[in-house]
């Protein structure tokens, strides 16, 4: 039987790097460390090789459809399958708490819209029993949202990708035309762009799980904790290797019947729909 294949996006540093390291130690198959910067990606692979681990490297810019397509073509030609996919690539620009339209769009293009491109090109390669983990955050819980209209829509059990896209578009349009309302979000709407991108990602997790039910694929979202990485801008209270354990659990050890859940960093499953719960992202800016 052909080797199993695992892919981690945005993996040249931080959490992605730790996930690749953990998979190299425990996953029975080929592990791809992908990054949008070839030099940094190859340096990351060299660091792991120095530890006696052997990931493969491939260039992958998740925000560029040609790059995603080229990578999918490569995996299809070389392996014909994909067994594990960790959607980890993400950005957060700290210097704009209330971002410009361009900064908000950049965040959403990389953190959310890239997942639609990945679904288009990489999901057809997922095998029966494959596992997908979408790396969300506390910003991705529905309690970050206060706007009643969108709360009602995003809670729908028959939510569609189009409705998620409309939510994202309406937020971006409000930034573009100056009608953005801080009261539509928790915590005075600080970094609403990140909240929107991560809530959209978590909502998409639920939609995709429903869509791919027949293929017996597990698609789950996870809040890995406030991690000591570049994205935490000097903050964070969890080492990346520790935070990676929750993602590795979902990939390697969780029941295959665990599908469409939102898992907290302590491996507890939280109710994503509990918009009145105390889960929203706060005090990290």
Automatic annotation (TrEMBL):
Coiled coil: none annotated. GO terms for molecular function: oxidoreductase activity. InterPro entries: NAD(P)-bd_dom_sf, SDR_fam. It comes from the Eukaryota. The keyword NADP applies. Pfam families: adh_short. Keywords: NADP, Oxidoreductase. PANTHER family: CARBONYL REDUCTASE 1-RELATED, CHAIN DEHYDROGENASE FAMILY PROTEIN, PUTATIVE (AFU_ORTHOLOGUE AFUA_3G15350)-RELATED. Belongs to the short-chain dehydrogenases/reductases (SDR) family. This is Carbonyl reductase [NADPH] 1. It comes from Papilio machaon (Old World swallowtail butterfly). The lineage of its organism: Eukaryota, Metazoa, Ecdysozoa, Arthropoda, Hexapoda.
């Amino acid at each position: 039987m052909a080797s199993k294949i695992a892919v981690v996006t945005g993996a040249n540093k931080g959490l992605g790097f730790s996930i690749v390291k953990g998979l190299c130690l425990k996953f029975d198959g080929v592990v791809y460390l992908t990054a949008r910067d070839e030099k940094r990606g190859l340096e990351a692979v060299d660091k792991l090789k120095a530890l006696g681990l052997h990931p493969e490297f491939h260039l992958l810019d998740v925000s560029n459809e040609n790059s995603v397509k080229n990578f999918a073509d490569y995996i299809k030609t070389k392996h014909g399958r994909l067994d594990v996919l960790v959607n980890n690539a993400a950005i957060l620009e700290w210097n704009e708490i209330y971002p410009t339209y361009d900064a908000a769009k950049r965040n959403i293009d990389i953190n959310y819209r890239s997942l639609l491109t990945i679904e288009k090109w990489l999901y057809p390669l997922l095998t029966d029993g494959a596992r997908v983990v979408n790396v969300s955050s506390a910003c991705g819980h529905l309690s970050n949202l206060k706007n009643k209209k969108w709360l009602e829509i995003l809670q729908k059990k028959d939510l569609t990708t189009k409705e998620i896209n409309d939510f994202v578009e309406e937020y971006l349009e409000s930034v573009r035309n100056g009608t953005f309302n801080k009261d539509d979000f928790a915590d005075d709407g600080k970094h609403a762009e990140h909240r929107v991108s991560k809530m959209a990602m978590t909502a998409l997790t639920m939609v995709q799980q429903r869509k791919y039910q027949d293929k017996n694929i597990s698609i789950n979202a996870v809040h890995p904790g406030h991690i000591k990485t570049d994205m935490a801008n000097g903050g964070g209270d969890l080492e990346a290797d520790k935070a990676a354990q929750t993602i590795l659990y979902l990939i390697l050890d969780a029941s295959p019947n665990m599908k469409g859940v939102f898992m907290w960093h302590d491996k507890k499953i939280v109710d994503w729909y509990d918009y009145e719960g105390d889960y929203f992202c706060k005090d990290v800016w």
